[in-house]
């Protein structure tokens, strides 16, 4: 007998073997399938519907609104309006910190798609971004990056079945981004992120971006600058007067950076989340809580929901301050999570 109903009487999910319960569960599943579009059932279940079973931890058929394929992979709750994840998949993302370093596969793919991708001085991994997109969206949702760069977010959208939109100020990086992801060519605008709500984008379901870390790249010295200068690669985003990375005054930078997300608010659907990847910085021996100040600036408009700490543990340590004063090697970034309410 094929099992159409599972419960969790103890610590393990187990099949319900009662024939009448399974028949009723099959009828409920048939109704779910007929309403699959309205219920927004993820494609991974629709494509394997013959293997799908109903689930309720206490075995209550009248209250059952979760489905599963393999019990060890967890059950998907039909009330999940945020993403396509099962409970077990959801839990994995909720840890407040994670370690992630650049993947050779991502770098290799970037170079294969466009030999000039290395010219951007501060790219991030589409693999890492895919995890955020998978948590905060459903397949087919619209994702926007106001600082698109060479298209890492667009690549992550392609991998996860989402639709990418964005802006990029530097025409060189914009050109790389649209060559890299031609399917989104019309969705990625070469323009100022502070005009994000004037480009005719549709309502956006989620935004993830990493703005300039103030003018940190303009102050690049040492091995980073030496290596990139030798390869004739960019050590800063651009010379453009609209480039946020060229703002010298800290308070002005915070306000200008926040303005991008204020404009973004206008094209976000209600309930949509945004993630801003940023970190605190040091300048001329002084510590600037960039991430915290940006979060505070935006919390009057958005609801500040949480943070995830991104740690890079493969970066070499430098003897900053030795032997006179404590100063840290900053190897972590803040992934600020905000919501339009």
TrEMBL record:
Entry's Gene Ontology BP terms: methylation
DNA methylase N-4/N-6 domain residues: 68-178
Keyword Cell membrane: no
Keyword Methyltransferase part of the UniProt annotation: yes
Gene Ontology MF, one: N-methyltransferase activity
Entry EC number(s): 2.1.1.-
Protein keywords: Methyltransferase, Transferase
Family recorded in the similarity comment: Belongs to the N(4)/N(6)-methyltransferase family.
Protein name, as recorded: Methyltransferase
């Amino acid at each position: 007998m094929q099992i159409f109903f599972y419960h969790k009487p103890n610590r393990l999910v187990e099949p319900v073997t009662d024939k009448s319960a399974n028949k009723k569960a099959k009828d409920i599943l048939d109704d779910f399938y007929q309403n699959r579009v309205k219920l927004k059932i993820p494609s991974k279940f629709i494509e394997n519907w013959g293997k799908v079973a109903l689930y309720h931890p206490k075995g209550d058929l009248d209250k059952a609104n979760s489905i599963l394929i393999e019990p060890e992979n967890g059950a998907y709750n039909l009330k999940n309006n945020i993403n396509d994840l099962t409970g077990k998949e959801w839990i994995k993302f909720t840890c407040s910190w994670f370690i992630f370093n650049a993947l050779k596969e991502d770098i290799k793919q970037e170079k294969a798609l466009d030999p000039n991708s290395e010219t951007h001085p501060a790219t991030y991994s589409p693999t890492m971004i895919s995890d955020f997109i998978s948590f905060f969206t459903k397949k087919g949702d619209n994702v926007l990056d106001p600082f698109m760069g060479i298209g890492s977010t667009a690549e992550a959208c392609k991998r996860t079945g989402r639709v990418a939109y964005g802006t990029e100020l530097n025409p060189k990086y914009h050109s790389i981004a649209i060559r890299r992801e031609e399917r989104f060519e019309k969705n990625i605008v070469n323009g100022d992120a502070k005009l994000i709500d004037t480009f005719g984008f549709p309502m956006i379901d989620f935004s993830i971006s990493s703005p300039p870390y103030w003018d940190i790249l303009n102050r690049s010295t040492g091995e980073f600058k030496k290596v990139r200068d030798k390869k004739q690669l960019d050590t800063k985003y651009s010379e453009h007067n609209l480039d946020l990375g060229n703002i010298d005054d800290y308070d002005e930078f915070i306000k200008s950076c926040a303005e991008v997300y204020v404009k973004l608010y206008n094209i976000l659907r209600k309930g949509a989340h945004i993630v801003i990847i940023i970190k605190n910085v040091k300048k001329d021996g002084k510590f600037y809580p960039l991430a915290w100040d940006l979060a505070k600036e935006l919390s009057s408009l958005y609801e500040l929901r949480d943070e995830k700490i991104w740690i890079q543990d493969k970066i070499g340590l430098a003897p900053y301050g030795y032997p006179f004063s404590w100063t840290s090697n900053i190897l972590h970034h803040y992934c600020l999570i905000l919501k339009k309410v």
